[in-house]
Structure formats: structure tokens, C-alpha cells
């Protein structure tokens, strides 16, 4: 079977936005009074996933439903994002019947249980400056990710910035699916699965655009 390395989508910013030059760690709570709320632009934002298995990989995308980015001055200091799980697509399989079969499996209880959990959410809890990243990331984003009703804290590097009433963030997050009770095909739980194993971690690559 195949696996979801959701996620979270790789990147090229749709707008030329300069990176934030934060001097200190910021948290949504500490900057709440001085922050402005920017509206996520779902039509301009992207979220892609990659899931790997022993014999290959699959990739696709999901769409943001809504969200807000909190901005103070030229810094992103927080944000909340809602993902429409019903929009989940597989991109690497062109044969319609096989594509539909995989999408159906990813929607099932084995994976994301989408009928019961139609949305996933991510809430930023802190953003810490990051220097010297080879990929050009300038911040470490930490927050609470909720999938299948289960919330776990995750952190990942990102390139963030604010310019001309537009806030942007792009990067790739690595997620351990087993922490969200997605254990299908995991060698961590089914040792004799052999070459049918699906890797525990999947990636989500994102490019977020929000406007004032």
C-alpha cells in the first residue's frame, strides 16, 4: 500500500516577500495586543504531501480552508490554519481507477478517517529566529498540529516575511504519522510487514500567503 507523506508541500513563494528580520523569539500570547490579523488567501496558498514506502513513494496535495496570520510590525508572530481534508488529492498516479483507490484508502480509518475528521489544524505557538540555514529559512516555527482529533507539538524551519500588506511563509514539515494514530503499514507496529512497509514519517510542504 502507499503512504502519505502529507504535507505539507514544498514551495516557491507566489509573491516576492522579504524575510522577517526578527531579533528575538516571539509568541502569539506575548505579542497579541500589538498584532494585526492577516487573512489567509487559500487560492494563493499551497500545501503538498509526500509519503514514502519501501518500494517507492506517492505525492499529492490538500487545500487550506481558512486561516489567519498574526503580524507585528515586519514580523509574523502567530497564526492558525485550517486544512480541508476532503480536498486531498494524489498527483503521481494518472490511471483514474488506481488513483481513486488510493485516495479512498487515505480517506479511510487506516489513514486520515476523513469522514469523521474533515479538517486538520495547525496553530503557531512560537517563532524563533534561525540563522545560517542552507535552504534560506530564517525561522523555526513551533505549534500544535491536530490530525484525526489528536494534537501534537511539531517544529520545522521556514522562510517567513512581511512586506506591503502581504505575509508569507514557506517550508517543509516532517510529521510522524504514528503519533496521530495512523499505524497502517508501519514497521514500528508490524515487524513482519517486509517490503510492504510504509515509512512512519511523511512531509508537508507549504507556501502560505496572507493579506492585511
From TrEMBL:
Coiled coil: none
Superkingdom of the source species: Bacteria
One Pfam family from the record: YceI
Keywords: Signal
Signal peptide (residue range): 1-22
All copies of domain Lipid/polyisoprenoid-binding YceI-like, residue ranges: 37-211
Alphabetized Gene3D superfamilies for the sequence: Lipid/polyisoprenoid-binding, YceI-like
Protein name listed in UniProt: YceI family protein
Source organism (scientific name): Hymenobacter metallilatus
Source species taxonomy: Bacteria, Pseudomonadati, Bacteroidota, Cytophagia, Cytophagales
Amino acid at each position: 500500500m502507499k503512504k502519505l507523506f502529507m504535507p505539507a508541500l514544498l514551495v516557491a513563494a507566489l509573491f516576492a516577500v522579504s524575510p522577517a528580520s526578527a531579533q528575538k523569539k516571539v509568541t502569539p500570547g506575548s505579542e497579541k495586543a500589538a498584532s494585526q490579523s492577516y487573512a489567509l488567501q487559500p487560492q494563493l496558498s499551497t500545501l503538498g504531501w509526500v509519503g514514502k514506502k519501501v518500494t517507492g513513494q506517492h505525492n499529492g496535495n490538500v487545500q487550506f480552508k481558512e486561516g489567519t496570520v498574526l503580524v507585528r510590525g515586519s514580523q509574523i508572530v502567530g497564526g492558525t490554519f485550517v486544512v480541508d481534508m476532503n480536498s486531498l488529492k494524489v498527483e503521481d498516479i494518472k490511471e483514474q481507477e488506481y488513483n481513486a483507490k488510493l485516495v479512498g484508502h487515505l480517506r479511510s480509518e487506516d489513514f486520515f478517517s476523513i469522514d469523521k475528521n474533515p479538517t486538520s489544524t495547525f496553530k503557531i505557538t512560537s517563532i524563533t529566529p534561525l540563522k545560517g540555514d542552507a535552504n534560506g529559512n530564517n525561522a523555526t516555527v513551533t505549534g500544535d498540529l491536530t490530525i484525526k482529533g489528536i494534537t501534537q507539538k511539531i517544529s520545522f524551519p521556514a522562510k517567513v516575511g512581511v512586506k506591503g500588506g502581504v505575509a508569507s511563509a514557506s517550508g517543509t514539515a516532517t510529521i510522524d504519522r504514528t503519533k496521530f494514530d495512523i499505524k497502517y503499514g508501519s514497521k514500528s507496529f508490524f515487524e513482519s510487514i517486509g517490503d510492504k512497509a510504509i515509512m512512519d514519517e511523511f512531509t508537508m510542504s507549504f507556501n502560505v500567503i496572507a493579506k492585511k
